[in-house]
Structure to design on (227 residues):
């Protein structure tokens, strides 16, 4: 595998409820290679398998068959604890719904992934979270409760939180799907900026062809296959 390949799927299949009468194969042999700094849009009809694909690349779910290498490591043979560790250090997630803790401030939400085993924040974590909040343009709002922020601001906090561990791969599942055009554009521009400044590889699910055109490449997932 070339050094700059950060995500590689070979013949990845995913079946839900395997071995039961309800078994359904949702991904039917996906091959995909993403290099460092690549920004790739994922498009395709509803129910075609885009989120399932992101969950597998994000090590939240395991393939039923095939190979998946993340940051040079073959993941299909890893035990759950090793998989969790690799996920924590390599992958950042941004979802359509921000999944912030609304009763925490913006800054506190960004510190959550840094807490780790310590379980409580220190000055270094606070400084790093402040830097991230600054980088997503939310300096004046850092002490606002996440629940009181606008949709676009919440998504910026979610991006800052996703970057807390400086991930090689950022997985964004329709992060702009719930936003008005102007906020969607601003969130996309921020993701692009992160990608270019840090060389983060981004996999970005969208139904918006305008935004897909602004990515380095687009894959179409149809009926569980890349076409
Ligand atoms: N845990 C599960 N158990 C059974 N079937 C599932 C499970 N998760 C997803 N599916 C099915 O897999 C298919 C693909 O779902 P997925 O959410 O990946 O599609 P999607 O392309 O992301 O859709 P959307 O654009 O609507 O978000 C759907 O038919 C869905 O019902």
């Amino acid at each position: 595998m070339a050094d700059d390949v950060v995500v590689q799927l070979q013949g990845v299949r995913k079946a839900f409820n395997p071995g039961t009468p309800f078994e359904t194969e949702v991904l039917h042999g996906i091959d995909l290679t993403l290099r460092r700094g690549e920004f790739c849009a994922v498009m395709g009809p509803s129910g075609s398998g885009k989120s399932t694909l992101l969950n597998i690349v994000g090590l939240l779910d395991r393939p039923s068959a095939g190979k998946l290498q993340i940051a040079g490591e073959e993941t299909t043979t890893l035990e759950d604890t090793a998989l969790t560790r690799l996920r924590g250090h390599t992958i950042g997630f941004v979802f359509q719904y921000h999944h912030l803790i609304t009763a925490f401030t913006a800054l506190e939400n960004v510190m959550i992934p840094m807490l780790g085993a310590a379980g409580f924040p220190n000055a270094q974590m606070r400084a790093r979270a402040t830097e991230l909040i600054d980088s997503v343009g939310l300096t004046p709002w850092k002490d606002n409760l996440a629940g009181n922020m606008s949709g676009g601001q919440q998504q910026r906090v979610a991006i800052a939180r996703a970057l807390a561990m400086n991930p090689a791969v950022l997985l964004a599942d329709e992060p702009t799907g719930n936003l008005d055009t102007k906020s969607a554009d601003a969130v996309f521009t921020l993701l692009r900026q992160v990608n270019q400044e840090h060389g983060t590889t981004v996999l970005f699910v969208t139904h918006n062809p305008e935004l897909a055109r602004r990515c380095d490449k687009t894959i179409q997932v149809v009926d569980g296959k890349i076409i």
Remarks:
- Residues 100 and 109 are 7 Å apart (CA to CA).
- The pocket of adenosine-5'-triphosphate is lined by residues 16, 24, 26, 44, 46-52 (CB under 6 Å).
